[in-house]
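Homework-ish question, so no full write-ups if that breaks the rules, but can someone show me the predicted structure for this set?
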Amino acid sequence: MKPGRTSLLLLALTLCACQREERQFRLDPPISASLQAVASMPDGISGAPPDTYRVLGKPYASNAYNLSQGKQLYTWFNCNGCHANGGGETGPAFLDGWWRYGPDIISIFVSIRDGRPRGMPAFRDRLTTEQIWQLAGYVQTIGAYSAKTAAPARDDAMQSRPAENRAPAKSSFASDQWPYPPQ
Amino acid sequence: MALSTPIAVRLVLLAPLVLCGCAGASAGWQSALQPHGTQAMALNRLIWILIGVGAIVWVAVMLVLAGALARRSRSARAGHTVDTNTERRMGRAVGSAVLATALIILGLTLTSFLLTRGLSASDARALEIEIRGHQWWWEITYLSSQADQVFTTANEIHVPVGRTIHLQLAAADVIHSFWVPNLAGKQDLIPGRDNSLTFAAQRPGVYRGQCAEFCGLQRAHMALLVIVDPPEAFEHWRRAQLTPAANPTDPQQAEGRKVFTSKPCAACHTVQGTSAAATIGPDLTHVASRRYIAAGLLQTTRGSLAAWIADPQTLKPGNNMPDVPLTATELQAVSAYLAALK
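A: Not a homework solution, just the prediction itself:
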């Protein structure tokens, strides 16, 4: 390849790096209201997200800024108090990849918003809908089955667990020792 | 400007622009050039001494250089001969210049040491205040050995004139920096590290400070006020801050309190005397007694409170206050309640 073309190609590749992830700080009120309309199954497990969620490009599962906000809410709203850093204590663990109410973001959203039996409180009067989505997105990454391309901000403190985009649960599935029934 | 304009003329034309910058920096309540605190005065004196000595040295060097250039052109015409007498004089001139350099540097070092020695001196009866930097606001806790004398406020520090103030600086998320130029020098607030800063204000007044370290998108909206009061006025303010929040005086305010404590507001903010006791956002027990809301963004009025609650992400994009959906009636009630929290 000629040096001129090589440098052009290199320049193009370098410019690709300029694309920055979009941070959306403000949702228009009708959009944030529509994100409330989750169609969950009658037993509260799994369901369909509102159409706006798909139109927005599933921002709470794939956008690093939203995942970081979720991580901050996880600490601020004392999720650590019961679930620890995902390892579980009074509440169930997330790291092991076993989801009592299913692994999809809708179930996690409904769990946070409405609470669950045996101790999980409802946060619908404590968090806004957008915050619940952010938190659900973050919680899902803790026990995700496959690696994600987006990750929340790194901890300043010592790491107590694998990074959120590392798919910690994957190895559990490969193992014959996995103690839980298939989901 | 035409290309033929001499450089000297261009510099003269640029000078007013540069001076404008100085005038802006020296205007009033946020200026290192109008010191009203013991520490800021010492720093101010030091900077003027450094500038003065530096200016004298610069002028002297320029004069000698000009003289040498003039002499060189004369001696070049006259031929190049140096006798032993001249050589001795030249040696003496160079030697004394080296000695003068050493003495000036030593002198400036000593001056700097003597003037800044007292900057971090605190005394036993200093007022202890803890300042915690958040993205993007200041959490301010007045400490005391008696638990019932401790209280928390935000973005506004009141101090008595003349008394030594000892600030304990901490950060919740990223590195911030505390700088109220009229009163003291700059000190960083670093997560996981204890820093401190001492100052004593010499004149009552209102002084402004701003985060002096880039800490994110809204750093420009991370201001704080230091209000220096006479001792009796400070004591009056301190007593008022220690009381729980005012009770609602009309049905709308009562409704506002109900909305505040039942909606997500109470999940982040504290209002002493109600069930709202969270410490994620600023303490709002006496929010209406503060001059500004949202760290210097808006003056505190019922209207600005309502605007802030209705749409914080438009007013200060990226801050951690969410858009909480409220009906118009709820918004009116909450703003009435908060505006009454003097």
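Now go work out the reasoning yourself. Hint: Residues 89 and 293 of chain B are 70 Å apart (CA to CA).
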